[in-house]
Amino acid sequence: HIAKVGGDHFRGLMCFSTEEARLLRSQGFDDLLIAYPSVQPADVELLWEMTQGGTVITHMVDELAHVEMLSQFWREKAGGASVRPLQVCIDLDMSWRPRGFHLGVQRSPVRTLEDFRRVLDAILQHPELQMAGVMGYEAQVAGLGDQNPFAPLLNPAKKWIKRKSVAAVAEKRAGVARLLKERGVQIAFFNGGGTGSIRTTTLEPWITEVTAGSGFLQSHLFDYYASNQNQPAFCFALQITRSSQADHVTCQSGGFIASGPAHSDKGPVPFLPPGLKPTGGEGYGEVQTPLVVPPELRGTLRPGDPVFFRPAKAGEIAERFNEYLLKRGDRIVGRAKTYRGLGYCFH
To answer: What is the pTM assigned to this prediction?
Structure first.
């Protein structure tokens, strides 16, 4: 639905795994970027099958071991015949390290321009591989809310980190772009950023695309970004099953906690009816979620009534529910199955 509405503004899909890429290919999608490297034989076999079958698919690498193992597999499968090479993308580390502190995520070991040069040279020495792109994701910008009401005292420090990081990552990506130009290496894409950094990442002229995921649905973590201008687009409902006392109701299920450090901002937030709050003692549970009811709502909520919540992120909800109901106004105008609804689970 997003690709249909977005048209030419969207290009390709970023995937978590080769199994996900295979499913997307079966659904008619092409130009797939697998963002996390794997050299498991079953995964590489799928890469081979999809590549030789004509799918435009690019796999992530960031170590010399990746390059050697993938190219060796390709040589053995080809057996001396002429075959389509495997398109690869170098994952460039975008963490910021002032005075030796690590601010960002533990992803790629390609941390310097020299690291990048070594991996690039290795790729260019293997005809089984084709250098297709670069990805540089600045998690400490794209994934760091700087107006977080759950930890307000940290917001000034987060704003400072993001401001400094924006300049640092732009300089690093510029160096990579210059190196590729000097070496005469043409790439199909230079990917950077995410939903939380779209407005800064897109200012860099070498960036050709920015990945957006949860931002299409505007889960509540994005409310806490100073640069956010988007409107909430989805929520989920849980039924009230009982009331343990006059100022509480209990909903069935609800433990849909977002990835990352398990802080209070990673849980859902009650949306409608307004004023409901989770309890400090239980929070959001796998089987039940008790809520404190404000005085004006006491006595109005009954078993079977829905409570609507906004999740912190979008992916966890797609793992728990079979489909999205697409609404326009007060009407359901369509349904879209999640991976769970299609019968798939990716690890």
So the answer is: 0.86
